[in-house]
Structures are given as structure tokens and as C-alpha cells.
Amino acid sequence: MPDRALDRVLGLRDLILIVIGTVIGSGIFLVPGGVLRQAGGQAGPALLVWVVGGALSLLGALAYGELGAMNPSAGGLYVYLRDAFGPLTAFLYGWTFFLVIATGSAATLAVASTSYLQQFVALGPIGRKLAAVALLGLVSAINVRSTRGSADVQNWSTAIKVGALLIMSVVLLVSRRAAPAAGASFWPASFTRPLLSGMGLGMIGVLWAYEGWQYVTFSAGEALNPQRTFPRAIVLGTASLVGIYLFANVGYLAALGTEGVAGSDRVAAEAVGAIVGPGAAKLIAAAILVSIFSATNGLTITAPRVYYAMARDGLFLQKLAEVHPRHGTPAVSIIAGTLWAMVLAASGTFEQLLTYVVFVGWIFYALGAACVFVLRRTRPLAERPFRVPGYPWTPLLFILAAAALVVNTIATQPGRAAAGIAVVLLGIPVYFVWRGAGRSR
Asked: Tens digits of per-residue pLDDT, 301-358?
């Protein structure tokens, strides 16, 4: 095992902005219209879905806050799963995370950025792939050079995109002249089964928009005073997202009305366009490009720490456990993850892979919250400077919500669910190969 550990250079502000910056990608600019349609075209139930989705994410953040304060190590969720459920469960998470979840998410962001880049420069099919690969390469270079430097980039880019979102929301609220007369009522007379079912479907899109709050756990090993700063950061960052998302949704409704929002799949562009005119397309494209860059950088600050932790456990290539002697970063892990993301982005296979596997992440997120129960029983004397409030109901509610999402996916999309589970299970023979190789050294 390499002797040098990662330097602790991330403060409370850095961790909060990693949470926010990693989560806010393109979802809040696109998803609200679909959520409103699923909620029967009524603003009240739609906003309630955003609140509940944020509350569920916050429940998970509270549970992970206890785990991160108890064991602030690089690798976060991977480490919690290893300590509570053993190395095989942790490896299957790390395997799926490297193969699809993290790298596929980075590839998705990079390719999505090229759609908005075309608002400023013409790109052919080859040009789009080169631009996606270039974005991944740029972010990788920033992160290899310095964790402190990449955190500074994250702070600035997140501040810019949150500022743009808030300014946009204020402008939309103040300039109400574009909003048509209200059609559907704000609240339904009763919450019928079809409405609740639609709200449940809308929740999938909302949880996708909130996806990524747990990534900051991977960087707990680089946090300053982690037992104090980490739980505060993950909770404050996640709570801030709820406020930002609700404010944006209210702005969209003010500008377009319920019918306008429900009829749009590009709600931010159309809402701003209704207020500022034809120049809106480039304004929103610029905002989304900054948002995507920040989210990609957030992934690259955090995800490679999982590969680094796996390698230190002898369950991945040993080179990935190395810390760069001059830069103090897990450079090989960063480069390895980026190269695979580049392959996915250039080949175009990431969409199918993510479709099959993204729901599997919620199995591991539920197991992560279950670690609170297991570790309280198996390690009762461990120092816990932060204890999840409302225990045992807080982690239990999160586990039940995650389980419901997984069960719903299996019931409604059994083929995709089976393919995703197969990808995870393929990691079992790989685990025993790595384990055997580690013992032979």
C-alpha cells in the first residue's frame, strides 16, 4: 500500500460548493416541464414533488453525514459499504461506479455540452465528439495538477451558475407580463390514485435532477477538520439545492404559466425567451455550459477517490493508489477514469449503459444509509461527532424511498433492470480475480 495519503485541503465552503456544483447540471433547465405534466398540470402537486425529492435527498445526506464524520476517509460510500457489508459489496459498487455510473455520467455531461456549444460554433459529428473529449481532458488536467486548484475552479464555476439561476429566477418573477392567465387550479380537489401515480413518475425526473449529493463523501479524506465540516457541508449543500430548485420552478411558472411550463421540454430557454426575446437561446446555452463544466469538474474532484480507495484495498490496479509526488493528487485514478469516460463519450455507448445501470445506484445508496444501523451495532464505541437526527426513522425513510424507486423500475422496466443487475453481477468474478492477484503478491 502506498505510504502517502491525500492532503486535507478542502474547507467547509469547498465541500458545500462541491455538493451544489456536482448536482446542478442541466436537469433544472429541462426537467420541470415533464414533472408538471406528470402532476396533472397543477403547480401545487408539481412543486410538492420537488420538495419531497429534496427532502428524501436530505434524509440521505443526514445519514451519510454521520458516516462521514465517523470515518472521514477517501472513498466515502465505498468505505462505508466495505466496513458494514464487507469487501465484495463495496467492490461491486466501485466496479459499477467506475464502469458506468461515474464515467457514464461524465460522458453524458461532456456530450450534452456540445449541443449547447453549437449555439456559438458549428460542430459536425466528429467535431462534437472531439469537443466532448476535449472537455473531459481539460477537467482532468485541472484536477491532476491540484486538488486545491480544482476546488477553486469548482467554487467559481458553481458560484457563477447558481448566481445565473438566481438572477434568472428573479427576472422571471419580476417580469410577470409574459405569463398567460392561469388555467388549471393550483391544488387538486383531491389526490386521486392516477395523480399520485403521476407524481411518483415525476419523482424519477426530480431525483435525477438531485442526483450527485452523495459524491462529496468520496472527498471526505481531503476535508479539513472533517468531523465538523463534512456533515455540515453535505446537509447545508443539499438543503440549499431544495431552495434553488424551488425558486427556479416558481420563476418558470411566473413567466410561462402552468400550461406553458407543462408544454415545454426546454423550459428555461422558453421562459427567458418570453422575457428577453431572441437572445435568450445564447444566454441559456452559456449558463448551461458553465453548469455542465462545474458538474463535470465536481465528478472529477470526487469520483476518482473511489478508485483510489479500491486500489489501496488491493481490489484495483495498484497504480491507481498512487499519490502524485508533486501535485498530491490521485493522478493515475483521475486519468484512468477520464480515459474510460472519453471512450464512452466517443463511442456513444454511455446512454444505453446509463439507462440500464442508473437505477442500480439507488440499491447502493439504500445500503449506504443501512450502514448507519450496521455500524452502530458492530462499532458501538466508535466516535460519532455527528449523529443523524431522528434516528432510526431518518435513515429508514430514505431506505424505503430508495427501495420503492428500485422496485418500481424492476416492475415497469424489467428488461432494463435485469441488464443493469447483470452488469453489477459481472463484477463478482472480477472481484475474486483481483482478490486472488492481491494475495499472490
From this structure: 999 999 999 999 999 989 999 999 999 999 999 999 999 999 999 887 666 666 777 7
Phi/psi of residue 102, each to 5°?
-75, -50
CA 213 from centroid of its chain's CA atoms? 5
Count the neighbouring beta carbons within 10 Å of the beta carbon of residue 150.
25
CA atoms lying within 13 Å on the CB side of residue 393 = 2
Cell (9 digits) for 122: 458549428
Q: Which H/E stretch holds residue 336? A: helix 331-347
d(CA 64, CA 414) in angstroms, rounded, equals 30
88 burial class (0-12, 13-18, 19+ CB within 10 angstroms)?
middle
C-alpha cell at 144: 491532476
Q: Taking the C-alpha atoms of 154, 159, 165 and 168 in order, what is their torsion angle to the nearest 10 degrees?
A: -140
- Pairwise CA distance, residues 286 & 290, whole Å: 6
Q: What is the pTM of this model?
A: 0.91
Band of pLDDT at residue 1, cut at 50, 70 and 90: very low
Report d(CA 62, CA 69) in Å as an integer: 11
Residue 195 and residue 341: Cα distance in Å, rounded? 39
Burial of 244 (0-12, 13-18, 19+ CB in 10 A): buried
> CA–CA separation, 235 vs 60, rounded Å?
9
State the cell numbers at 235: 446537509
All structural domains of the chain = 12-440 (1.20.1740.10)
Write out the H or E segment, with its range, that includes residue 86.
none
Contacts of 285 (CB under 8 A, 6+ apart): 116, 117, 119, 120
Residues 324, 329: Cα–Cα separation, whole Å? 5
Which amino acid, residue 175? S
Cell 426537467 belongs to residue? 31
* Helix residue spans in 263-279 (DSSP H): 267-276
C-alpha cell at 182: 392561469
Question: Which SS3 state, helix, strand or coil, does residue 436 take?
Answer: helix
